Amino acid sequence: MDRTKDIQTNFSLAKALGMQHVTLSENQYDVLADTHDFSPVAPPNATTWLGVPQGVAVPEAELGIRRLAHELNEYAETYANNVAVVLPCGTGTTAHYVAKHVHPSIHVYGVPCVGNAAYLRQQVAKLESSSGPSPLRVLEPRKRVAFGTLWRPLMDVHAEVLEDTGVEIDLVYGCLAWDTMLHALHLLQSFEGREVVYVHCGGLSGNASQLERYRNKYKL
Q: PANTHER family from the entry (predicted)?
């Protein structure tokens, strides 16, 4: 029985917007992830199309993220650039380009939310091969949480941030990044007394189904 059939999910929203789901074998997926060659799955009748891999891990992403970095630079001037920027990471694309374009005095930290720290560094290295290096720092979570799995402290962080700030963060990326950030602040690690800025990178449309999963597991 599909417990989320009546709940709005990322998948249902994408289908409503016209997304066509293409099923791939494990081997096909691995090849696509490695080569970024979308021609085997491109619409056969399309005259023009653009293949965008997971995490928008393409050089074209740099243009928009550079603008974000400039906005962070403007904000950081208020604190004489004594700022630490924290971002949740999948492929690390946003964090990499932010780190590349912010003022050199600003420290940028990426929190691995999909794989471990080694996976994040590997993904960033691929970007660096085409776009040049960035001084991105990796802030490791206190617990390895497999992508999309449930961990009660993430639910607690979601509730705490919402209650204290009125801002909702997503349960997959944002809550793990916040738990990591708050833990580092509590231990007085990493940020060296800097003003900490968190950059929200994910949407909230997946929260409804995640919250339902938490309620079912923890009988909330």
A: 1-AMINOCYCLOPROPANE-1-CARBOXYLATE DEAMINASE-RELATED (PTHR43780:SF2)
CA distance 106 to 84: 6
For 111-131, the pLDDT digits (tens) are 999 989 999 999 999 888 888
Provide long-range contacts, Cβ within 8 A and 24+ apart, for 9-18: 9/205, 9/206, 9/208, 9/209, 10/203, 10/205, 10/206, 10/209, 13/205
In the chain, which ranges are E strands? 83-89, 107-112, 137-138, 195-198
Give start-end residues of each CATH 3.40.50.1100 domain in the chain.
Answer: 59-213
Q: Are 183 and 142 in contact (CB under 8 A)?
A: yes
> Out of 46-55, 106-115, 127-136, 173-182, which region has the weakest mean confidence (pLDDT)?
46-55
Task: Give the residue ranges of DSSP H helices in 36-173.
Answer: 62-76, 93-101, 117-131, 152-165
Residues belonging to the chain: 220
The 10s digit of each residue's pLDDT in 169-212 is 999 999 999 999 999 998 877 788 899 999 988 788 889 899 99
Give the pLDDT mean for 58-82: 93
Q: 154-163 long-range contacts, Cβ below 8 Å, gap at least 24?
A: 154/179, 155/211, 155/214, 155/218, 155/220, 157/182, 158/207
Token code pair at residue 107: 């420290």
59-213 classified as CATH 3.10.520.10: no
Chain mean pLDDT for the chain: 90
> d(Cα 172, Cα 11) in Å, to the nearest integer?
15
